[in-house]
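Pinned message: reference record for Rod shape-determining protein MreD
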Amino acid sequence: MYRLSRLRFLFPIGLFITFFLDGSFSKVFANQFFSYPYSMVSQLVLLWLVLAYFFEGNIKIPLYGFAIAVGVLTDLFYSGIFGLFIVLYPLIVWLTKLLATFFNENFFNTLLVFFIDVCVFQLLNYWAFLIIGVVHVNIVNFLLNTLAPTLALNLVYFVLLYWPIHSLYERALAKQRS
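Predicted structure (tokens):
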């Protein structure tokens, strides 16, 4: 069904745009995002993946495949450590699907799932970098100086983009039905 829907174009294009915007925002707003001791990490790709799961309807986008593909791109282009995001993005898709079984779809529940996803994603990313010795920050400083600002930034993204993305998916799915 995905192959016949308009989402086969909309989803990958949106995923590419969010991938590009994550890096672009980090570059353009570097002084605001990375002002010592605070740092905010833009997670638009994560937002796109989570909202796609909630808005896909009965179309069932192959999210794991796309999550792996964007993970490869992120590893190669941004992180420099091959294998981290290849695992983290599909893991967050799995977590989203698991959490969604406990909640019905509405703005606040989707916000809660996204909040949990960002927390888990950032914590796993921190632990991975801590284990391999890239990061030398204790957990309290990470929580206060990185996780909290990152959550604030990404929750603003969520609030600003939830309805436009929802209407985009609704229009794509409505044309599918007619």
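Pinned by admin. Summary line: The two ends are 15 Å apart (CA to CA).
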